[in-house]
Predict the structure of Acetyltransferase and hydrolase with the alpha/beta hydrolase fold protein.
Amino acid sequence: MPLLRRAWWAVLDWWYAARWQLRSTGPTTAEDYRTGTGQPVVVVPGVYETWHFMRPLMDALHDAGHPVHVLPVLRHNLRPVPESAREVLAYLEEQDLRGVLVVAHSKGGLIGKYAMTLPEGERIDRMVAVSTPFGGSVYARLAPVPHLRAFRAADPVLAALGRDLAVNARITSVYGVFDTLIPGGSELAGATNVRVPVGGHFRILGAEQTRAVVLGAAGASAGPAAG
């Protein structure tokens, strides 16, 4: 892929991320999304992201009749994957949500898969993970902080998730033709892998093709609503 094209995509990608960081201070609240009679959806954003990053997909799902839940307790998603996964499962139990569709971005996909591997993960029907580093990122070894170095392929948690194939058939991994932060891509063995014609790690969340995959997964799932 031409270097100039990759550089341009990187510029667009970081501009997209900056705009959504600013939008996280807007008036939209999590409660605005919790109405609906369709399959319940829980969104899990990536590291340094608030749930507002997921709003393009949240809007599409809510417009289609799905109650969409967020977990403010994750804040900017800096805690270890196992800890955050247990927060997700605790929320599902507290709200008595079953047959849940998890829609995740980046690190959120690792959290979602970890949750699915636990006994309590039976409440999760399936997951759509967007731009998730299932195989790690070569950039992680250069990271200055532990919560980014955790994306090394050799990290114990990430390596164990890679060896656990049991839930992969219930995961759809969506990724672009070029990822700013995960040059190795997000293909996951045994999962439904969908590559969309978008370059970048963040702006893929706003792509029409990504919305179509997420809505398709919600339509194909047969999980019940809350209760």
Observations:
- The first helix runs from residue 3 to 23.
- The chain has seven helices and six strands.
